[in-house]
Amino acid sequence: WQSSAATCVSRIEPLREELRTIMLTTLKSRAISALAFTKTTPTLVSLQSKLSIPQTIANHRHHIPCQHCSRSFSTTKTQLFSSSDADSSSNSVYPPPPSTFSYSTNEWHQRCKLAVSYRISCMESWDEVIFNHITTKVQDSEKEKDGPHFLINNFGMGFDEVTASSLVKVTLSGKQVFPPSSAAKVPKGRVFGAGYVLHSAIHATRHDVDSIWHCHSLDATALSQTTFGVLPLSQEAAFALGKGISYHPFEGTANDASEQPRIISNLGPTNKILMLEDHGPLVACTSIEEAYATMYFLTRACTYQMKALSAVGGDLDKIHMPKEQIVDQMLNRIDKLGDVPGQDQEDVQQSVDDEDEEKYDIEKLMFDYAKRSAERKYGAHDIYR
Fold first, then answer.
1. Of 71, 101, 76, nearest to 86 (Cα)?
2. pTM of the shown model
């Protein structure tokens, strides 16, 4: 890198006058518009060619902070995409799908949100080489003849490689769904049997579930190997307990469809967390935002608990175990976690009438921050393609 940079610097001087001419011409013609920039870009690119900048440097993705606000732009060469614009409101704004693929707008937005979820999972260390899965049900796919369909990662790709268009759409039987023959051809993907068995069982029977997030987080998986279960030792644990936690005994690798009825029975009709004993955590939620927040608090609670138990040699008598009354109080407070402070009943009613926030959507706020972080790390253009 240093050698290449030194070579670039030594060769800039002969071309300085050429670059100065281009800039003066642009300024004189008031060429601040996108059209003028487009006209000068080929010349600037040719300068890059003359400088013999190595391709690895030329294509290096940079994160350029705006001097006038906190927004960050992810760029490669002349491409700019504002990460904060990607999902700054309830109306998600994503770049259009590649011209070689044919998706509905809704499905493309779902693909973008799921793809960035895989990147988030990687950042949280909730990945294991090419294993584990996050899935989401394709909107309105239950109306299809072979529906509902869900999106899953292409087996063989790491979580940090997943893109919106690489996701595989499958039926509940595990068959890949392709666009109509008139549409552009979509490459055949790989569907991992263990992921299909686990996720399809829940998508088929829990109609309230939109997204399922499963991982082998070290501490959560270690905790699943104990008989303690998740204990109410922290506010993060209270959040997880408030979602309802079920437990499913270990039967081996989850690639046997005969296990599906027992998975569903143990999860139950309303609980959103399933601790797969000797295997790892799974959350099944009404949105991908809720799934992320639930997995975050669950894994955090497991880490606290494992460290605390390790510190006291597993002796529960040395753990601050809250009494039942306090546990109920913890759960009640979690329910009010998103309340906006400083509002009396009249203020709340006024907020409802004015369509202002009366309660913060903490799960969405958490996901949006994690999403921005992933875009800064990997580049929005690399995820949403």
1. 71
2. 0.72
